[in-house]
């Protein structure tokens, strides 16, 4: 089963993808995470991507298309029961490239799950987000605090990080990019009849429940 988790920055794509990875063994393919890893490693395209990401703009299509294409060739992905595209595709050109890639690999998209969230909620979600520096588990100052203050629930680490692009100014730019370049993809996938909507304003657990219900209806 291959799905896209679709929605604006802060909609909950990463949070839900990690839960589905655990519950269903699907592999999360987050272009944002892959780009951040390239930035941290100082690779050629990481250097180019850093500035663009910090401005809240989109990295060129050919860069992310190549990253995804290479990742789909790796053994863990090939042997998994399916993948979750998180943050990809973000433009019509990326969606068309994905269709082509999947067809070549004999794969198909089963659903595009759209997380509907009001723009007003997103700035609060993103500016309150932090992540375990060791295992990557995501938290929120208000909505998902560690059970023991300052200690990661998953791995016990006491170090946390925040993303360089998680400030209010960049979030507003990311939202603008989403509405101008990414939201039109909903119509693209509606034509294919695979769009499923969930209420992204509900609690994290309730959103998980709604997504699981959609996935159950597919299998
Ligand atoms: P990327 O890393 O993909 O960021 P994004 O799309 O902006 O999404 P986020 O990771 O910010 O949000 P999310 O939906 O995963 O929310 P989360 O679950 O963390 O991209 C970053 C940049 O990389 C882009 O700006 C671009 O430059 C570049 N890039 C990436 N992919 C690209 C592509 N394909 N093409 C071109 N450029 C690309 O949740 C947020 C917070 O809210 C968390 O703290 C969480 O705990 C909390 N939360 C989650 N759900 C709920 C809920 N239901 N209720 C209350 N709180 C919640």
Can you characterise this structure?
The chain has 219 residues and is of the alpha/beta class. Helix content is 50%, strand content 15%. The chain is built from ten helices and eight strands. It has helices at 13-24, 31-41, 44-55, 61-72, 75-78, 92-104, 119-127, 168-182, 185-191, 204-218, and strands at 3-6, 27-30, 83-86, 111-116, 129-132, 138-140, 160-161, 195-199. Helix 1 crosses helix 10 and helix 2 crosses helix 3 (44-55). It is globular, with a radius of gyration of 17 Å. The model has no long low-confidence stretch (mean pLDDT 96). BIS(adenosine)-5'-pentaphosphate is lined by residues 7, 9-15, 31-32, 35, 52-53, 56-59, 64, 87-88, 90, 94, 125-126, 129, 138, 140, 143-144, 174, 203-204, 207.
**Major sheet: size, sense and barrel closure?**
5 strands, parallel
Sum up the overall morphology in one term: globular
Count of alpha/pi helices: 10
- The strand count comes to 8
Keywords:
8 strands; five-stranded parallel sheet; three-stranded antiparallel sheet; 219 residues; alpha/beta; binds BIS(adenosine)-5'-pentaphosphate; 50% helix
Summarize the structure in short.
The protein has 219 residues and is of the alpha/beta class.
List the helices and strands and how they pair.
Elements: E1 3-6, H1 13-24, E2 27-30, H2 31-41, H3 44-55, H4 61-72, H5 75-78, E3 83-86, H6 92-104, E4 111-116, H7 119-127, E5 129-132, E6 138-140, E7 160-161, H8 168-182, H9 185-191, E8 195-199, H10 204-218
Parallel strand pairs: 1-3, 1-4, 2-3, 4-8
Antiparallel strand pairs: 5-6, 5-7
Helix pairs in contact: 1-10, 2-3, 4-6, 7-8
């Amino acid at each position: 089963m291959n799905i896209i988790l679709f929605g604006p920055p802060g909609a909950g794509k990463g949070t839900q993808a990690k839960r589905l990875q655990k519950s269903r063994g699907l592999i999360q393919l987050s272009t944002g995470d892959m780009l951040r890893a390239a930035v941290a490693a100082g690779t050629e395209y990481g250097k180019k991507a850093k500035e663009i990401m910090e401005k809240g703009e989109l990295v060129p299509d050919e860069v992310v298309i190549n990253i995804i294409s290479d990742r789909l060739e790796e053994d863990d992905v090939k042997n998994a029961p399916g993948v979750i595209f998180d943050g990809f595709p973000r433009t019509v050109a990326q969606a068309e490239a994905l269709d082509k890639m999947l067809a070549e690999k004999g794969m198909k998209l089963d659903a595009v799950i759209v997380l509907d969230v009001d723009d007003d909620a997103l700035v609060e979600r993103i500016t309150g987000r932090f992540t375990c520096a060791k295992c990557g588990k995501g938290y929120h100052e208000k909505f998902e605090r560690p059970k023991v203050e300052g200690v990661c629930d998953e791995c016990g680490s006491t170090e946390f990080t925040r993303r360089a692009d998680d400030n209010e100014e960049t979030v507003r730019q990311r939202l603008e990019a989403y509405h101008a370049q990414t939201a039109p993809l909903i119509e693209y996938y509606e034509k294919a009849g695979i769009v499923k909507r969930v209420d992204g304003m509900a609690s994290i657990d309730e959103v998980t429940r709604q997504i699981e219900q959609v996935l159950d209806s597919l299998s």
